[in-house]
TrEMBL record:
<feature type="binding site">
    <location>
        <position position="148"/>
    </location>
    <ligand>
        <name>substrate</name>
    </ligand>
</feature>
<dbReference type="InterPro" id="IPR001048">
    <property type="entry name" value="Asp/Glu/Uridylate_kinase"/>
</dbReference>
<comment type="function">
    <text>Catalyzes the transfer of a phosphate group to glutamate to form L-glutamate 5-phosphate.</text>
</comment>
<dbReference type="InterPro" id="IPR001057">
    <property type="entry name" value="Glu/AcGlu_kinase"/>
</dbReference>
<keyword id="KW-0547">Nucleotide-binding</keyword>
<feature type="domain" description="Aspartate/glutamate/uridylate kinase">
    <location>
        <begin position="4"/>
        <end position="234"/>
    </location>
</feature>
<feature type="binding site">
    <location>
        <begin position="210"/>
        <end position="216"/>
    </location>
    <ligand>
        <name>ATP</name>
    </ligand>
</feature>
<comment type="pathway">
    <text>Amino-acid biosynthesis; L-proline biosynthesis; L-glutamate 5-semialdehyde from L-glutamate: step 1/2.</text>
</comment>
<feature type="binding site">
    <location>
        <position position="9"/>
    </location>
    <ligand>
        <name>ATP</name>
    </ligand>
</feature>
<keyword id="KW-0067">ATP-binding</keyword>
<keyword id="KW-0028">Amino-acid biosynthesis</keyword>
<dbReference type="GO" id="GO:0005829">
    <property type="term" value="C:cytosol"/>
</dbReference>
<dbReference type="InterPro" id="IPR036393">
    <property type="entry name" value="AceGlu_kinase-like_sf"/>
</dbReference>
<dbReference type="InterPro" id="IPR005715">
    <property type="entry name" value="Glu_5kinase/COase_Synthase"/>
</dbReference>
<dbReference type="Pfam" id="PF00696">
    <property type="entry name" value="AA_kinase"/>
</dbReference>
<dbReference type="InterPro" id="IPR041739">
    <property type="entry name" value="G5K_ProB"/>
</dbReference>
<protein>
    <recommendedName>
        <fullName>Glutamate 5-kinase</fullName>
        <ecNumber>2.7.2.11</ecNumber>
    </recommendedName>
</protein>
Length: 259
């Protein structure tokens, strides 16, 4: 697969244990893979969930709270720890990181949009790995993305990426929910987000994440409409990203139509 600039989105369920605590081994594997991909000449932007989940783990909550106030507090608590860990491990592989916290209103106005794009381009030119998350601490309903699948698709379009890879806790896109249907079959390539495809998606994400399959399909449609391919891949083994870049048929490829 011929790609230069890649956006990788990793979900909370991939980054944490069932306890809500960080899966440090998984994070280290992911950072090592991204660092090696950069060594190969690719440019990588990481969109990372996990701040609220990490914050909940730090204060001993088993599940995410419902109130906005609590979510904002947990995001502030968790984001600092999450980025600190990323930065520490990336440095071990010779790379620096830059934290980018976005809210939707930043991208809804041309001047702010172009400013954000220039900032990303500058960081990438320095060889830095931008680590992106929604600014949950100040987000309200009117200015939030709502989930990091949507955020990652928006970032992919913003930075003019060649490929978006969404790492989830599922192997790819199935014709029915594999958690409920043992006969569910994975669909290796989706060339159009049709009503039939949308009907195959369930409604909910995991107990630790916010995005379900429908948010991933909406992300795929958005990037496909903007000329970007998307791959949905199980993040339990980050080394699978190599196989994607080698062109192997793994996970589900949402292929944009050539114009």
């Amino acid at each position: 697969m011929k790609t230069k600039r890649i956006v990788i989105k990793v979900g909370t369920s991939t980054l944490t244990h069932e306890s809500g605590k960080l899966n440090l081994e998984r994070i280290e594997q992911l950072v090592r893979v991204i660092s090696n991909i950069k060594n190969m000449g690719h440019e990588v932007i990481l969109v990372s969930s996990g701040a609220i989940g990490v914050g909940a783990g730090k204060v001993g909550l088993k599940e995410k709270p419902d109130s906005v106030r609590m979510k904002q507090a947990l995001a502030a608590i968790g984001q600092a720890s999450l980025v600190s860990i990323y930065d520490k491990i990336f440095k071990e592989y010779g790379y620096s990181t830059g934290q980018v916290l976005l809210t939707k209103f930043i991208l809804d106005e041309e001047t702010r949009y172009n400013s954000a794009r220039r900032a990303f381009d500058a960081m990438i030119s320095f060889g830095v790995v931008p680590i992106v998350n929604e600014n949950d601490v100040i987000s309200t309903y009117e200015i939030e993305f709502g989930d990091n699948d949507t955020l990652s698709a928006t970032v992919a379009e913003l930075v003019r990426a060649d490929l978006l890879i969404i790492l989830s806790d599922i192997d790819g896109f199935y014709d029915s929910d594999p958690r409920k249907d043992k006969n569910a079959k994975i669909i290796p390539v989706v060339s159009e987000i049709s009503e039939e495809i949308m009907s195959c998606a369930g409604a909910e994400g995991s107990s630790r994440g916010t995005g379900g399959m429908k948010t991933k399909l909406r992300a795929a449609k958005f990037v496909n409409d903007n000329g970007i391919d998307m791959v949905l891949l199980n993040g339990n083994v980050p080394e699978k990203i190599y196989r994607v870049l080698e062109g192997e048929n793994i996970g589900t490829l949402f292929k944009h139509k050539e114009k």
